[in-house]
């Protein structure tokens, strides 16, 4: 009986001290860190509407006017968060006369992401080829744009580039569309 009373006293003493003091509760909320919206190793696929305005391939004093709407597809890859390469192809109509104007461009891209705003302004420079009807030629281009991301994989973009070359090639190509990042 003595052993039982001693054991009971030890259990009561231990239980009493376990309930002593103030209750502790944590009101901290653990927030998962935001994943980078713009990242190194990113592969993008673009689908866009486009508008072109200007002149191309002046031959014998005659120029072909590029004033039309259309669309295209593009792909890009970013080696780092800030620098990448892209290739895109754009088809537009020529003044509504049934002829098609095509512009294929390859560019180096530099961007400056603002993660908190989901924005990345960018600049591009490169070259490619333009053709319409039976005329074709190489070209160079420079441009600027803005990329907005809804999340890591879906965004919208708009950019405009000046395309220049021999034979009076002088035009502006403006694009706006969806960007899917992987």
Please, could you describe this protein's structure?
By secondary structure, the protein is mainly beta. An 8-stranded antiparallel barrel has the order 1-2-3-4-5-6-7-8.
Major sheet description:
8 strands, antiparallel, barrel
Structural class assignment: mainly beta
Total number of strands = 8
- N-C termini distance: 74 Å
Residue-averaged pLDDT: 86
What is the overall silhouette? rod-shaped
CATH topology: Porin
Order of helix and strand elements from N to C terminus: HEEEEEEEE
| Poorly predicted segments | none
Helicity level, as a percent range? Answer: under 10%
Relative strand content: over 45%
How many separate domains make up the residues? 1
CATH architecture descriptor name:
Beta Barrel
Helical segment count:
1
Query: Regarding CATH, which class?
Result: Mainly Beta
Write down the Rg: 31 Å
Task: For the largest sheet, list the strands in their spatial order.
Answer: 1-2-3-4-5-6-7-8
Summarize the structure.
With 182 residues, the chain is mainly beta. The chain is 9% helix and 60% strand.
Relevant terms:
9% helix; mainly beta; Porin; 8-stranded antiparallel β-barrel; 182 residues; rod-shaped
Any chance you could write out the topology, listing elements then pairs?
Elements: H1 2-18, E1 42-59, E2 62-78, E3 83-93, E4 100-111, E5 119-132, E6 135-149, E7 154-164, E8 170-181
Antiparallel strand pairs: 1-2, 1-8, 2-3, 3-4, 4-5, 5-6, 6-7, 7-8
């Amino acid at each position: 009986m003595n052993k039982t009373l001693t054991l009971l006293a030890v259990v009561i003493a231990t239980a009493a001290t376990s309930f002593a003091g103030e209750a502790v509760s944590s009101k901290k909320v653990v927030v998962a860190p935001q994943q980078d919206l713009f990242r190194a190793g990113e592969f993008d696929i673009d689908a866009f509407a486009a508008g072109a305005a200007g002149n191309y391939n002046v031959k014998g004093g005659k120029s072909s006017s590029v004033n039309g709407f259309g669309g295209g597809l593009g792909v890009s890859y970013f080696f780092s968060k800030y620098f990448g390469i892209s290739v895109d192809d754009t088809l537009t109509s020529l003044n509504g006369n049934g002829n098609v104007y095509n512009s294929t461009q390859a560019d180096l891209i530099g961007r400056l992401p603002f993660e908190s705003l989901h924005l990345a302004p960018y600049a591009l420079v490169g070259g490619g080829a333009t053709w319409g009807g039976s005329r074709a030629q190489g070209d160079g281009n420079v441009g600027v744009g803005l990329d907005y991301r809804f999340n890591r994989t879906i965004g919208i973009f708009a950019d405009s580039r000046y395309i220049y070359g021999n034979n009076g090639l002088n035009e502006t190509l403006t694009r706006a569309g969806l960007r899917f990042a992987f």
